[in-house]
Specification:
Double Stranded RNA Binding Domain; 21 strands; about 15% strand; two-stranded antiparallel sheet
């Protein structure tokens, strides 16, 4: 069952469900497909160019076309580019035709039947997928698989250009995009430069289109649906993620992971041009841009130049806020 929204704007709520993204905010296939063969389907097909495995030869063929041959399916109505024809169809149905799949138990609207099914299992049926090696329980089979690979099987995907190793192929790709690929995507409206089109799109929506996601319990407004979800969990639901090695508790699993890597696991990101060791990928990015690439963000009111956009913004607020007000009044 689906609903077609005649105005192209629908109240869609994001949820963390791993599947191809019809919106294009992270479009792609799973890093490594879940292989749950039927009793008469036990074969697994391994890609001869990477770690991808599947139960179906057709999926392997599609994987090779998209990942290794660069096959793409552009949308004729916007800038979205899909890596499979199925993803393009889902994108068009959701983004341009306004087709949604509503939940009959709450006000959630899904972009496709897969998301709706996963939503119901997670939110209303309480279905969990427990790990048989620890107390962890996942909300989706794909999440459980990745948990096992990372925590119990020690599977890592090493970078061939530095010492970094990822627990997911997607993480490795993002690492290479940020730290090793020279491609940059400048914003046409300001000095900001993104490492990929998705980040540039989010920047444009937040900074220039002023798209906000308001909280229904306070005055907070987030720049993204995921940020709003984290805000509600942390501020209104009191959700915390405690560290099992010290008294620290994080507001999100991502923050807890960063804390553990930095404080307890000694994870560092080395610069390939000097002896600098960063405690976070973002810090390494800023280091490389400021120290080795000479990237600066100059102030348009004085001779000051910052190494980070955030530093420039704070400088303007502190030193030139009155000048900004005068300019606005004159204009």
């Amino acid at each position: 069952m689906y609903i077609k929204v005649e105005s192209g704007e629908s109240d869609i709520k994001e949820e963390s469900i791993e599947e191809e993204d019809p919106l294009g905010v992270g479009a792609g296939v799973d890093d490594q497909e879940i292989c749950q063969p039927l009793p008469n389907k036990k074969l697994k097909y391994q890609c001869d160019q990477c770690e991808y495995t599947t139960c179906w030869s057709s999926n392997l063929s599609q994987h090779k076309k998209s990942r290794h041959e660069g096959k793409r399916y552009p949308c004729e109505k916007c800038d979205f580019v899909a890596i499979t024809s199925q993803t393009l169809k889902k994108h068009i149905d959701f983004k341009h035709k306004g087709i949604i799949y509503p939940c009959d138990q709450c006000d959630y609207n899904a972009a496709n039947s897969f998301h709706l099914k996963a939503h119901k299992e997670t939110k209303h049926l309480g279905i969990k997928y427990p790990c048989d090696k620890c107390d962890y329980a996942a909300t989706q089979p794909s999440v459980l698989r990745k948990h096992k690979e990372a925590k119990h099987e020690g599977i890592r995907y090493p970078c061939d250009k530095c010492e970094y190793s990822a627990t997911l192929l997607g993480s490795l790709r993002r690492h290479k995009e940020v730290f090793h690929d020279s491609a940059r995507h400048p914003c046409p409206k300001c000095e900001y430069t993104a490492t990929n089109k998705v980040t540039l799109k989010r920047h444009t929506e937040a900074k220039h289109d002023f798209i906000r996601y308001p909280c229904d319990q306070c005055d907070y407004a987030a720049t993204g649906a995921t940020a709003l979800k984290r805000h509600k969990q942390s501020v209104h639901e009191g959700v915390r993620f405690p560290c099992d090695k010290c008294e620290f508790s994080a507001s999100s699993l991502a923050n807890l992971k960063r804390h553990a890597n930095t404080k307890h696991n000694g994870v560092r990101w080395p610069c390939d041009q000097c002896d600098y060791l960063a405690t976070a990928p973002g810090n390494l990015k800023y280091h490389r841009e400021s120290k080795h690439e000479g990237i600066k963000y100059p102030c348009d009111h004085c001779e000051y130049s910052a190494m980070r956009i955030g530093d420039l913004r704070r400088h303007k607020l502190k030193q030139h806020s009155q000048d900004e007000e005068k300019i606005e009044k004159v204009s």
